[in-house]
Write a structure and sequence with these properties.
Length: 505
């Protein structure tokens, strides 16, 4: 800092000298008997006098008071007679340095918030906005398997998605400095602005920081941003510095472990709005997520597709279990595998229709060229259905036919999770129920709820949407039926006709 002062010279030492000299002269004059007749001549060597070389030989008798007065007057008039103390007056504002952000203990002045928007991986690798090259097609790979976004170090604590800058500046991080030493003590520094973060998966769905990452949602997009902000000290000039808003997107992926991500069954274009399944189990554009164990119900000719990430072409051997065969056919890239169920059916001789031993577990395994198991997918089949096709008969006919097979006529809860309302409020559908009198896609919600639009499948083709299946359920003296499309619960008189479907067990 530069200080400019106006000086008023303290001259008391000069006055002391003048008083000392004049005192000698006046004293000598008063007691010298020759002074009464002193002439006007006054001879003195000024240089020698000022150098303190006055000798007794000075011709004091030749001087008079008037000449002495003339000699000493210039010295007396040159300085004020009153003693003055030293004073200082500031003529310009003291110019110092403004407070600034620093992330290395003050060695480097940060002009941006780039460091605040950096991330650090669990292996110690730090990535800043300047060094970030990640994209959706070339993401940053996490070092260890099973890591979450909470393992990625950031200046925002894991317990929140935003933080005020003052909490970082005045907190344990202490990311600031001032070369003048300003800003110390309580309320010495004020900071404005904030940091925030958001996490989304590849489908633009928000996820939490502790979300278990997997390849199905990868890459994950991490957006770090800060608002405009300012650092300001209580004293000093200048006492503030500002910085602009910033934002950066990091794309992150876990270690690529091949996995079944989605299971598509039925025509998804028809299973929207009220028919769509619950969030977390159902993706409107993909189908069921791999978190469920689809299917729990089966029938001859039903099929579904496995959507796989992180794998190339695999070999999927056929599985035979309890009289049911599961066939797999992969596409060229290995990203999709069609699974088809084959088992007891109404076609052919009724005496040849068997009863599968259920419930039964099925495990499907995909192998690479070296014979190594790469992906496994399993489900537990609990019920097997036989549809009588286009046979539009009385209730009694279908009941007898199912009984002779060792099966039973379906109940409402076997095929739909429709919410029985109004006249049918006492019927029992699969739980949890839909929001209305129709199915909604849910694993464990019955045949139609699991598999969707019935017209999609071979053994169910030809069923008009305005007709239904008989059930064994009766409400208030009325027989209940379930529509082939939509899974609605309705009533029908027993002397009318409908389709028939049997189930085991």
């Amino acid at each position: 800092m530069q200080y400019n002062f106006f000086y008023q010279i303290w001259q008391h030492y000069v006055l002391n000298v003048s008083k000392y000299l004049s005192g000698i002269i006046y004293t000598t004059h008063l007691f010298n008997k020759h002074t009464q007749n002193c002439r006007k001549y006054f001879l003195i060597n000024v240089n020698k006098w000022l150098c303190f070389e006055l000798k007794p030989r000075l011709q004091l008798y030749k001087c008079s008071k008037s000449y002495l007065f003339i000699l000493t007057m210039p010295l007396l008039l040159s300085y004020p007679l009153n003693t003055q103390a030293l004073s200082a007056t500031t003529t310009n504002i003291i110019q110092g340095s403004a407070p600034y952000l620093t992330f290395d203990g003050g060695k480097t002045k940060a002009t941006t918030t780039e460091e605040l928007l950096s991330i650090t991986l669990s292996d110690g690798t730090t990535i800043t906005p300047a060094t970030n090259t990640s994209t959706a097609t070339d993401p940053i790979a996490l070092p260890n398997e099973g890591e979450t976004l909470a393992n990625v170090g950031m200046f925002i604590p894991t317990s929140t998605d935003s933080i005020e800058l003052k909490e970082l500046i005045n907190g344990s991080y202490n990311f600031w400095s001032d070369d003048d030493g300003d800003g110390q003590g309580e309320n010495g520094l004020t900071a404005t602005g904030s940091l925030s973060i958001s996490f989304t998966d590849r489908h633009n769905q928000r996820v939490s920081r502790n979300h278990v990452l997997d390849i199905c949602g990868a890459p994950y997009k991490v957006v770090l941003s800060n608002t405009n902000g300012m650092l300001m000290t209580q004293y000093g000039v200048p006492n503030s510095s500002t910085f602009g808003a910033g934002s950066v997107s990091y794309f992150i992926t876990p270690i690529l472990t091949p996995k079944v991500c989605y299971i598509k069954a039925g025509d998804l274009r028809l299973d929207v709005n009220q028919f769509a399944g619950p969030e977390g189990m159902w993706n409107p554009s993909k189908g069921f997520t791999s978190s469920g164990e689809f299917p729990t119900t089966g029938s001859n000719g039903l099929f579904f597709d496995l959507y796989i990430e992180g794998s190339g072409p695999l070999t999927w051997p056929t599985v035979n279990n309890a009289g049911i065969t599961v066939n797999m056919k992969s596409n060229a890239t290995g990203s999709s595998v069609r699974i088809t169920l084959t088992g007891p059916t109404a076609n052919g001789n009724r005496n040849s229709i068997s009863k599968p031993n259920l419930p039964q577990t099925f495990e499907l395994v995909g192998y690479d060229r070296s014979g190594k198991s790469v992906i496994k997918y399993g489900f537990v089949l609990q019920k097997w259905f036989i549809n009588r096709g286009d046979r539009f008969f009385l209730l009694s006919s279908h009941e007898n036919w199912c009984k002779k097979l060792g099966y039973r006529l379906i109940q409402v809860k076997d095929v739909t999770n429709a919410n029985c309302t109004g006249l049918h409020s006492s019927c029992q559908s699969a739980k949890p129920s839909s929001v209305g009198n129709h199915y909604h896609r849910r694993i464990g919600g019955g045949l139609l709820s699991e598999w969707g639009y019935a017209m999609e499948y071979m053994d169910l083709v030809g069923l008009p949407s305005d007709n239904a299946y008989w059930t064994s359920d009766v409400v208030a003296g009325s027989q209940l039926v379930v529509t082939a499309v939509g899974g609605q619960v309705k009533t029908r008189k027993t002397n009318e006709t409908a389709y028939g479907m049997c189930v085991y067990p």
